[in-house]
Amino acid sequence: MKRSNGGIDLSLDYHAHVLPGCDHGSDRLETSLRQLDMAAAAGIRTVCATPHFYPHKESAESFLRRAQLLRAHLPEQAPQICLGAEVLICDGMERLEGLHRLCREGTNELLLEMPFYAWPESIWDTLYQLLDLQDIQIILAHAERYPAADIEQLARDGVPLQLNAACLTKPLHRKRYLRIGRNVQGCWKRECHETRYSDRCGRQAAAGFRDHARIQC
Question: Fewer beta carbons under 10 A from the terminal one: N or C of the chain?
Fold first, then answer.
């Protein structure tokens, strides 16, 4: 889901692993079809398919060709599938050929995955190089998984964050992200990984937003 024009769009899942056999999210076509059925039942009309992209394993061109072929196996009816990627940061990524092609379809938004360990200086340097790009808008994927101090600093710097909706159903996480909420400009996702999809957590997260109108996302 995504906040825009003062409301919460519960019909959009911004970050989902639904392409069959593309990464660890869905192991086969049948799994993907179950995911999409659950998404539709939860009121989702658009699913952003954002499989993992690892720059050290394949080129952007190869990744996109594979993703497009896999999408062709999915039904055309709702929910609509929008291609993107969850791109793992690496040193010098700002120079990666075809980086802009990994953005969410129809936008300049690049979903960036950070390491789950203390970020070395080289990663910080690369992150700020990416943030300086004029043709790409960086969105940090599942920001609630990273060190809180780092995320709060990036939020103060105006970096858009994507959070899993489930994090707002937990009191401590909700307090943290509503506290920095006025600087969170990101997108929120329900849980769509393997064959789990929670409509309840998406609506609880939206309720948290409505209770704190000061958030500008």
Answer: C
What is the rounded distance in angstroms from the CA atom of residue 36 to the CA atom of residue 195? 9
DSSP of 152-164, one letter per residue? HHHHHTT--B-EE
pLDDT for 36-65, tens place per residue? Answer: 888 888 888 888 999 999 999 989 999 998
What's the CA dihedral at 137, 135, 90, 106 to 10 degrees? 60
* Cis peptide bond upstream of 79, omega within 30: yes
Cβ atoms within 10 A of the Cβ of 213, count? 9
pLDDT in tens, 83-125: 999 999 999 999 999 999 999 999 999 999 999 888 999 999 9
Question: Tokens 């996702």 label which residue?
Answer: 189
Sheet holding 86-88, edge to edge: 52-53, 86-88, 109-113, 137-140
Q: CA torsion 63→65→66→68, rounded to 10°?
A: 120
Bridge partners of 52? Answer: 86
Widest pairwise Cα distance in the chain? 46
